[in-house]
Structure formats: structure tokens, C-alpha cells
Design a protein that fits this description.
The complex is a heterodimer of chains A (459) and B (252). In chain A, a hairpin with a 2-residue loop joins strand 1 and strand 2. Chain A is globular and about 70 Å long. Chain A is an alpha/beta fold. The longest helix of chain A has 23 residues. Chain B has two domains: 172 residues, Rossmann fold (3-Layer(aba) Sandwich), CATH 3.40.50.300; 58 residues, no CATH class. A six-stranded mixed β-sheet of chain B has the order 6-9-10-3-11-12, sandwiched between helices. Chain B has a four-stranded antiparallel β-sheet with strand order 2-1-4-5. A two-stranded antiparallel ribbon of chain B has the order 7-8. In chain B, strand 9, helix 6 and strand 10 form a beta-alpha-beta unit. Classes of the chains: A alpha/beta (459), B alpha/beta (252). The structure holds adenosine-5'-diphosphate and magnesium ion.
Chain lengths: 459, 252
């Protein structure tokens, strides 16, 4: 939702008149501006086009405020705990190959990109000589000089002026933009695995930025993997990804977030699909203190398929907010969304799934299901499916359920000798298994299922 | 094996079992018959430990121990098995996973080593075949979308795999065709041994042509109102339950 200018000016007058909270809010922006200026002063010069874009984003950010729970889009998620901290950018910390190997996904042949505290570590990553044919990977700055400059600049311009300050911030810092281009017809079997390590006592912020352009007829898989930090100190990941699928391209997009419970993450992803393309997303949230994911898919041409799969398994005081937006702008497209989660302890889950079927989008098939097991009296789930249909010849459905474990199933399992805990774990595992079983890479699926199992069992 | 004395149980404040007495010795097969709603499933579920049923009076000793004090899974580990009248459908839990977990959970509880994946597979496949079940079934979700007959066969498969000391079959024969009925009978007969007992709850005498019981009891209105040998089942088949109802209406 845009923050109209008058609202912003209201705020300024409020600030003059009295209110402390407003003053704090704008100081928060100030901290990030300070950090921006400090960072730019110490970084090597960027190509002028990117530098000016980032400066414009920073200037726009300076005039913004962070959302509060009075903003409809942030009704259930307060970012105060995130933005009231003073953050520094992360420093490269020592990490060795053994540590990377031990964090690897067993039996997965991948193309690795290793980041430590937000800094790219080439020495631990798959060398470019081993990147498969048909895949080009470049830094943001480099890519902006290449053939996708027009698409990327347009996106960045829009993000620099975005109404979501976290998107603007990511654009301004643009710290680790990576661009991956899959050439026409190229089938890249090994997933690109972005391993985001964090380590050390110091609190830090990172701004990953991912670009994927799948050319016509190509196939590609990418995994954003946010690993847990051992130290229980906070860090904040403010990530943006943009994916573009041209005709008949297929992209599998994994996002595995298993950060420590002191971590914050705000993740914003935009996907554009051209004709006959298939985009599948598999989002898993196990960690984090406050996590907010926006996943927007725009269907620009007909006969596309979109599969949005999501899992959240949270306990303690964790907070995970998933916002998805399926924009059916053209006819004959199919989308299928399944988000399932288990919320226990004092955790809070949020699901807001919007499906928009625009007037031209006849023959749309759009399905959405969100199901949550709420397993403790203090756990909270806010589920809000939003179906807005402006075409008449469509098949659409949505459902949101919030329930408990089936007592008769628990009894049945226990009569067969399964102890209570195992019976409950098995049922919860099965509940989420409906989502994990959609993951096409067996090694990834096994890995995620093991993490799910461990979290269920050790809880 | 099992000694039930003056067992009273209620659900939501309604007394359903009103003083059951039953002695089952090792190796015996007891049939429990009775009209619908008389409390047969309640008795079976109380023995298995279902928490909805509140035992208000009486004792149940199993192998000399207080059965009512044991957790549901402890009863299973101690060898009590209930074949459900309505087996529960559990989406997302495959038959194979479930059977493995169940077998190993019992082995662990009994201090035995878990079966290796290869041994496990062999063991399960073998029994599946004996029960005339398709191996493909092991990939399906537990009971989900199973036909009535498949569900009952599945209960018998679990009984065969878990090798209980006391098996309670709650109307396992209801609604089965003659082939499936034979499978049920064969499963029971294959397990019959001097140290294993069965309580077979049935509505029809037909199953008892294949499983010859040592005793037949009639449960009516929460009490065992008649006990006898296998001839009692034939009697009931011929005369129906009305005379039992009448006799007890007079007595009551
Ligand atoms: N969970 C329950 N809640 C309420 N009433 C029940 C429940 N289970 C059984 N009953 C009642 O108890 C009585 C006996 O039921 P049941 O044991 O199922 O009989 P049977 O198996 O002999 O047909 C019936 O009147 C039934 O309605
Ligand atoms: Mg019954």
C-alpha cells in the first residue's frame, strides 16, 4: 500500500507538535541513512549509473518512515524490534571449507555461492570455471552494463521509489547483487545454492539481492539458504529477489530459512512470467525471530503455471508472516498455492494470500490453500485469503483452516505402540509432508524433511 | 491373561458399561456378541486405553498388572492389540512408514534391537503376501481411501506384524465378503497359540464357523447377560437378539 505524501507530511507536523514515537520512527530511518553514507564513503566507486540509482533510493528512503501496525499491510507484523536497533554491515569472518562442507546438503550436487555475514567469499564458492555451460553469473554492477540493463534498471528504478522502505533500502545498499542468466534452451541440472552463513558476536545487517533471468526454454533451480548462526546475537537480512521467466522457461526457487531465533528477515520477491513458463517456489521457514516474506507473481502472458509451496514451523516467540500475491493479468493461466504451518508456544504465524484475477484473465485456474495446526493455547495464527475476481469464466478456490491434531489418529497410532510424542511428531510431519513432497530435488527434500523432523522431535 | 471385575465406564457422564466381569485365560478365544449399542466397542476401547471413556468402577488385570494404569502405548508394548471397528484414516503417513515405526517402537520398548531396513522390508512383505494384499498398498497413506475390506485386512496385517498376546477384534468381520472373512479367520487361526488369547467382538455368528471360540458371551445394555460355549452363537443366529432383550427387560 502506498504511503501517500500527505500522510508523510502529517507525520512531520506531528513530530513538530509533540509525539515521541514519531520522532523515534524517523530516527530509525536516520540510522540507516547514516549507515548508507558511511558505507559509501568506504566502498570502491561503482559505475555511475548504479551509484546514482542507489543514491536516489537512499534519498527516497530518507523521506520515508517505517511501517507501523496501523498500515494495513503490516497489521500483524511489527518491525519495531528490527528498526529500533542500530545495525552495521557484516564483516567477512573466517570460515573454512570444512565448515562449508559440513553445512552442505548431502547428496546434492550444486553450484555454490558462499556468503559470510553478507560478504561473498569466492574462495569457498564453486569457481567460475566449473559453472555449467549456459549459465552466466555476474555481479549486479557488471550485469547492469550487459544486455539485461533495461530490465534491471527499470526494476531498480521502481524499487528505488517503492512504497516498502525495506525494498528501497535493499536497492540503496545493493550490497551483494548477483545476477544469473540461463541461456536459451539451457537445462541447468545443478541448483545454484546460495549459502548465507552468519557468524560472530557482532550484530549486523545484510542486503542480498538476487536476479534470475531464465531465457526461453531454459530450466534452472536456485536455492536461497539462510543458515543458523551459532552465537545468539541478532542479525537482519533484508533481501530482494527478481526473477524473470521467458517463454517456456522453468524455474524452481527454493528458500530455506533456518536462521537462529535471534535473527530478523524481511524478504521481498518479484516474479514475472511470460507465456508457457512454469515457476515453482518452495519456501521453508523454520528459524528467525521476526520474518516477513512477500512473494509477488505477475503473470504477463498466457498459459503459465505457478506453484507456490510454503511451510512454517515455529515455536517459542517466533513470528513468521507470509504475504503472497498472484496477479492473474492475462487469460489461460494456472496457479496453485499451498502453505502449511505448525505454530506452537507463543509463536505467531500470518498468512495473507491475495489472488487477483483481472477482467481480461478468463479461463484462469487459481487455487489457494492455507492450513495451520495451532498446537498451544498461546500460539496465534492470522490467516487471510483474499480472492478478487473480475473475470467470469474462471475456476478459483481458496481455503484457510486452523486446527489441532486429530485425537483419534493419535489414539490409533498409540495403540500400535507409538509413544505419544512420536505419534504427534509423525502426524505433524505428515501434515507438512504434503508440501515437502512437492520439492523436486530429492536431496533437498530429504534435507528439509530432516530439519523439519528434528525441529518437531526436539521441541 | 485378562481379568475384568465389575467394570463400569461412562462417556460424557452416560454410563455405558455397567459392571462387566470377564476372565480370559491364555490360549482362549472368547466371542462377544450383542445388539448394536450394547457397549461392545466401548469395552474394546476401554481395554485399549481410549481416554474419552472414563472408568468409574472396577478393575482390569492384564498378566497380573493393573491394565487401567498403563498408557495406551504401554498396553501395546505389553501385547494388547485392538483391531478397530472403524480404522482411522491418516493422510500423509504411508503404510510403510507407519508399520516400520510401529514395529520398531514395540521392539525398543521390549528391549529388542530395531530391525534393519532390509529385515524390516522382508518381514513386512512376507506378511503382506500371506494376507493376500498388494505390495503397492505399502506406499499408500494409512487407511486413506481404503475400502472397508482393505481396512480390515490392514488391521489383520498389523496384528500379524505386532504378534500381540491379547488381540481384541472389534467387528472385524462386519461387511466382509467370504474371501475377506477367511483372511480374518486365517489371521487369527495362524496366531492361535497356548499363550495368546483373543476377544472377538462380532455381530454375526458366521465368523465363528471359521474361528471356533471357547466361550461366547452376550453383552447387552452394558452387562454380560449370558455366557456359554460355541452353541450359544448358533442359538443367537437362529433366534436373534429379541429374546435376550425381552429376558433382560423383564429382569431389569
Ligand atoms: N464417544 C461416545 N460419545 C457418546 N456416546 C457414545 C460414545 N461411544 C459410544 N457411545 C454410546 O455408548 C453406547 C454403546 O456404544 P458402543 O460401545 O459403540 O456399542 P456397540 O459397539 O455394542 O454397538 C451407545 O449408546 C453409544 O451411542
Ligand atoms: Mg461397536
Amino acid at each position: 500500500m502506498p504511503l501517500p505524501a500527505e500522510k508523510a507530511s502529517n507525520r512531520i507536523s506531528e513530530k513538530i507538535n509533540q509525539a515521541m514515537p514519531t520522532a523515534i520512527a524517523s530516527d530509525n530511518i536516520g540510522h540507516f541513512i547514516e549507515l548508507y553514507e558511511k558505507t559509501k564513503a568506504h566502498s570502491p566507486a561503482l559505475p555511475s549509473r548504479l551509484a546514482s540509482l542507489q543514491n536516489r533510493a537512499a534519498a527516497h528512503l530518507e523521506a520515508m518512515r517505517f511501517p507501523s501496525r496501523r498500515d494495513e499491510d503490516w497489521k500483524y507484523t511489527s518491525v519495531r524490534r528490527i528498526v529500533s536497533q542500530k545495525w552495521d554491515l557484516g564483516q567477512v569472518a573466517p570460515l573454512n571449507l570444512t565448515q562449508v562442507e559440513s553445512a552442505a546438503i548431502e547428496e546434492l550436487e550444486d553450484i555454490r555461492f558462499v556468503f559470510v555475514n553478507g560478504q561473498f567469499v569466492p574462495a569457498l564458492s564453486t569457481p567460475s570455471s566449473q559453472w555449467p555451460k549456459g549459465l552466466t553469473i555476474k555481479s549486479l554492477a557488471e550485469a547492469l552494463e550487459g544486455q539485461d540493463a533495461a530490465w534491471m534498471s527499470a526494476k531498480l528504478e521502481a524499487h528505488a521509489q517503492h512504497d516498502n522502505p525495506f525494498v528501497v533500502m535493499n536497492t540503496a545498499f545493493g550490497q551483494n547483487g548477483w545476477y544469473m542468466e540461463v541461456q536459451k534452451g539451457a537445462i541447468i541440472e545443478k541448483p545454484v545454492h546460495l549459502m548465507m552463513f552468519s557468524t560472530g558476536e557482532a550484530a549486523f545487517v545484510q542486503f542480498p539481492q538476487l536476479w534470475v533471468h531464465a531465457q526461453p526454454g531454459s530450466e534452472f533451480s536456485v536455492m536461497e539458504h539462510y543458515l543458523p548462526k551459532e552465537e545468539n546475537t541478532p542479525h537482519f537480512t533484508c533481501a530482494v529477489s527478481c526473477l524473470r521467466l521467458e517463454a517456456n522457461a522453468r524455474v524452481h526457487h527454493y528458500r530455506l530459512q533456518r536462521e537462529s531465533e535471534a535473527a530478523f528477515q524481511i524478504n521481498y520477491c518479484e516474479v514475472e512470467q511470460e507465456r508457457d513458463s512454469v515457476y515453482s517456489s518452495y519456501a521453508t521457514d523454520l528459524g528467525g525471530a521476526i520474518v516477513r516474506n512477500n512473494l509477488n507473481v505477475l503473470l504477463e502472458q498466457s498459459n503459465t503455471e505457478t506453484h507456490l509451496n510454503g511451510i512454517y514451523l515455529i515455536n517459542g516467540e517466533q513470528h513468521v508472516d507470509n504475504q503472497t500475491f498472484m496477479d492473474h493479468a492475462v487469460p489461460h493461466c494456472n496457479s496453485n498455492e499451498l502453505y502449511k504451518g505448525i505454530v506452537t508456544g507463543k509463536a505467531r504465524g500470518v498468512f495473507n494470500g491475495k489472488v487477483l484475477v483481472r477482467p481480461d484473465a478468463q479461463k484462469t485456474n487459481a487455487f489457494q490453500q492455507n492450513s495451520t495446526l495451532l498446537l498451544s493455547p498461546d500460539a496465534v495464527m492470522d490467516a487471510k485469503p483474499q480472492l478478487e475476481i473480475f473475470a467470469d469464466d474462471v475456476r478459483c478456490s481458496h481455503g484457510a483452516t486452523i486446527g489441532q491434531l486429530d485425537e483419534s489418529a493419535i489414539f490409533y497410532l498409540r495403540t500400535r505402540g507409538l509413544p505419544l510424542k512420536e505419534a504427534r511428531t509423525l502426524l505433524q510431519f505428515a501434515f507438512l509432508g504434503e508440501v515437502t513432497s512437492n520439492m523436486p530435488h530429492e536431496a533437498v527434500r530429504t534435507f528439509v524433511e530432516k530439519l523439519v523432523h528434528d525441529k518437531l522431535y526436539n521441541h | 491373561m485378562l481379568s475384568i471385575k465389575n467394570l463400569h465406564a461412562s462417556v460424557e457422564g452416560n454410563e455405558i458399561l455397567k459392571g462387566i466381569n470377564l476372565e480370559v485365560n491364555p490360549g482362549e478365544v472368547h466371542a462377544i456378541m450383542g445388539p448394536n449399542g450394547s457397549g461392545k466397542s466401548t469395552l474394546a476401547n476401554v481395554l485399549a486405553g481410549r481416554e474419552e471413556y472414563e472408568v468409574t468402577e472396577g478393575t482390569v488385570l492384564y498378566k497380573g498388572e493393573d491394565l487401567l494404569e498403563m498408557d495406551v502405548d504401554e498396553r501395546a508394548h505389553a501385547g494388547v492389540f485392538l483391531a478397530f471397528q472403524y480404522p482411522v484414516e491418516i493422510p500423509g503417513v504411508s503404510m510403510a512408514t507407519f508399520l516400520k515405526e510401529a514395529i520398531n517402537a514395540n521392539r525398543r520398548a521390549r528391549g529388542q534391537e530395531e530391525l534393519s531396513p532390509v529385515e524390516m522390508l522382508k518381514f513386512i512383505r512376507n506378511k503382506t503376501k500371506l494376507l493376500g494384499m498388494d505390495e503397492q498398498m505399502l506406499k499408500r497413506s494409512l487407511n486413506e481411501g481404503f475400502s472397508g475390506g482393505e481396512k480390515k485386512r490392514n488391521e489383520m496385517l498389523q496384528m500379524a506384524l505386532l504378534e500381540p498376546s491379547l488381540a481384541i477384534l472389534d467387528e472385524t468381520d462386519s461387511g466382509l465378503d467370504i474371501d475377506a472373512l477367511r483372511v480374518v479367520a486365517d489371521s487369527v487361526n495362524a496366531l492361535r497359540s497356548p499363550d495368546r488369547s483373543f476377544i472377538i467382538v462380532t455381530h454375526y455368528q458366521r465368523l465363528l464357523n471359521y474361528i471356533v471360540p471357547d466361550f461366547v458371551h452376550v453383552l447387552f445394555n452394558g452387562r454380560i447377560v449370558k455366557s456359554g460355549g460355541k452353541e450359544l452363537a448358533l442359538d443367537l443366529e437362529e433366534r436373534g437378539y429379541d429374546w435376550i432383550k425381552e429376558e433382560n427387560a423383564v429382569a431389569g
